[in-house]
Fold this protein.
Amino acid sequence: MLTVAGVTGGYGDLRVLRDVDVTVRPGRITVVLGRNGAGKTSLLSAVAGLLPTVSQGRIELDGQDIGGAPAHRRVRAGLGLVQENKRVFHARTVEENLLLGGYTLGGLGLRGGARREALEKAYERFPILLQRRRMPAGSLSGGQQQMLAIGQALMAGPKLLMLDEPSAGLAPAIVNEVLSMVAALRDQEGLSILLVEQRIEHALEIADDVAVMENGRIITAGPKSAFDDGAVIREVYLGRSGEELTTGNHGKE
Amino acid sequence: MTTVWAGLATGAIYSLVAIGYNVVLLASGTFNFAHAQLLMVGTFLAYAGAVTFGLPVVPTVLLAAVGVAVIALVEERVAIRPLLGRADRHGTLITTVGAATILDGLAAAIWGRQPLTVPSVLPDEPLTLLGGTLRPVDLALIGLTLVVGVGLHLWSRHTLTGLASLASAEDRDAASARGINVRLLGVGAFAVAGAIAGAFGLLVGARTYAVFDLGHSLALFGFVAIAIGGSGSQLGGLIGGFATGLVYAFAARYIGAAYPQLVVFGVFLLILFLRPRGLFGTALERRV
């Protein structure tokens, strides 16, 4: 579904991604873990076409090379992105946010054609958004804003959904709700998902594959079963260096 | 009431400047300091169409609209686009001021420094309306400015492209991630703002003459209109422009011809102190 191969890039001369390889299998969830500043958000930005510089590497979605396409074309190719910090349009209403999520859908008029159907589906999925549809998005609670951000990204009917720390800043009960919803998108709708998440235990519960980043590199990756003992994760988060890890059993080949 | 009409007619021109600022600001996130100069060029192109080439009204309006739209697109290509994608986007403040200076200089070089009379497209016989008198061309200027301002406001709230423009102003990256072509939107905004400025060249020129330094005073009062109405609000810009014109006209009528600018800038400072976002403005916050 998604293949990121040898991607190097960053912000001008500052390289934040170095030779990164990540894959997401069809209908599966790949979770990207790593400490703050490891390059996880930059990886999603690179895939979405929002990283200023990608100097080398290949990005393919469903066999289609999207590496050179601008961000808006990647959305049309089937990429959905839920950015970190519940990044919705705060000054616009809930319904306007959802309609903007369906910007690439056909149909005449603001609420016409496929956009109307997608809007109805979004309200079915998140009934609270229907109740709040005329309210400015900035006035919603954190959990509701996250639902709106996910609903907005789903409006265009993506093949691959990327989520950047969807649980950040949410109460524990809401975290479970949000991550269960992510799992349901895979299980019930067959969506492929690339998930960046700081809450490791929650993320591993729904993961099919795992990639661990450090200093802009993938230091280890594989099916979730390879991470079941938790040793690698503990080592990454509690301080052993990535270089040591690359020489171990879980190292990137 | 004649003072009111005079204030509204002058204010309509300030509203047009404010509307132009907002069209570009909303869609591209750039404040185009050269927009008042685009309005100035519109008056010259209207003069060229009506007087130099002797064209009828509609071809003259089209010539000015297309001509100024093309100039606005050139400005976008030369003064804005090279700076897009840079971390510090404040460079466009300098380059658009540079574009304004170049347009002033070009206008002076092509048409000279003396004011040129742009013929009125309507009869000069004054009308009496609600107890005051005004020229038909001023009434047309007020009415059409209202139509354009309200039309743009409705467009931005009730069409997908309009909403995309507002979303792009709020967060360009998030708009791109929704599939919105923010660059095309920005280019389109320059073209639309330029076309509107050009299309009004005949009406504006009939009130102000075509003169190379017209942009200076229009730019200043356009800022006041934005400060009163609030940046990012088309209705705010419209109302701010009319309010500025009314304050100017009443100050000139009741305080003295030497004082209206002082009074207008007093109001400007007061608004900045009391409500920096203006009466209808929304904060155009950006995430970094």
Summary: The interface with chain A takes residues 85, 87, 158-160, 163-164, 166-167, 170-171, 173-183, 282, 285, 287 of chain B (CB under 8 Å).
